[in-house]
Amino acid sequence: MQSIKYPELKTQEIEHKKIISSMNLFIKKLPKMKILDIEKELAHFVQIWFISHIVYEDKKITQWINQNDIPEFSFCWINSYKIGNTTIDAEHQELFEIASEAFKEVHNDERKNKIRKTLNKLFKYFQNHFENEEEYMVSIKYDKTEEHKDIHTDIMNKLTNIIKKSPKMSIEDLEDILSNFIEDSLVNHILEEDKKITYWVEFLEDIKESKELKEL
Ligand SMILES: [Fe+2]
Ligand SMILES: [Fe+2]
């Protein structure tokens, strides 16, 4: 919802909180409830929250997408991608900007050219970003630096392959492949691998803190 700038995001957030808190309340009451009452309440809960939420609220998101011609491939930086290092976060954000250029509306004859330009830009920027990120991992003695570097090498190989094959590909295939690549090598890589660097930093801070406490 954030990424498609859905105007009723706040309402949805409130609804989600309500669902979670009434679920929590229900779980707390469970041990003291009779099985029949549990069944009744559960049925009511599913009816009210799941069905009406999905039917009424979530459907509105689909309407918003259709009304505003939001492209099938839309990549947008959101705050939950942050890993906590200002430079790395800014670079990730820039990668999203570059990636989304590939899917901006242009004249049909220009589409392929635009994607190729984006691929080359992405290649240069990824290379530079990986170097910086790897330097950062070494500087904080991240314990999985080598594994992480291997994943970066893998990503660069994939991108090289796409660039090599791109002249012979149809525009539709190219868009598909590029969008899968971005999903996998940018979004998922940040969420699954780069985020681990944050946990490592937090872990180091915890150790430092407990050492200081001991000294006191
Ligand atoms: Fe990374
Ligand atoms: Fe990264």
Q: Indicate the structural class.
A: mainly alpha
The helix fraction, in percent, is over 70%
SSE order, one letter for each helix or strand:
HHHHHH
Please compute the radius of gyration using only Cα atoms.
Answer: 23 Å
Number of strands: 0
Tally of alpha and pi helices? 6
Q: What is the CATH C-level name of the largest domain?
A: Mainly Alpha
CATH topology of the largest domain: Four Helix Bundle (Hemerythrin (Met), subunit A)
Per CATH, the architecture of the largest domain is: Up-down Bundle
Amino-to-carboxy terminus distance: 48 Å
Task: Please specify the SSE layout and strand pairing.
Elements: H1 9-29, H2 35-67, H3 86-101, H4 111-139, H5 145-165, H6 171-215
Helix pairs in contact: 1-2, 3-4, 4-5, 4-6, 5-6
The structure holds fe (ii) ion (2 copies).
Protein architecture, described:
The protein is an all-alpha fold. It has 2 domains: 9-67; 79-215, Four Helix Bundle (Hemerythrin (Met), subunit A), CATH 1.20.120. Helices cover 76% and strands 0% of the residues. The protein is built from 6 helices and no strands. The chain has helices spanning 9-29, 35-67, 86-101, 111-139, 145-165, 171-215. The longest helix is centred in the C-terminal third of the chain and has 45 residues, at 171-215. Residues 133, 148, 152, 189, 193-194 line the site of one fe (ii) ion (FE2). One fe (ii) ion binds next to helix 4 and helix 6.
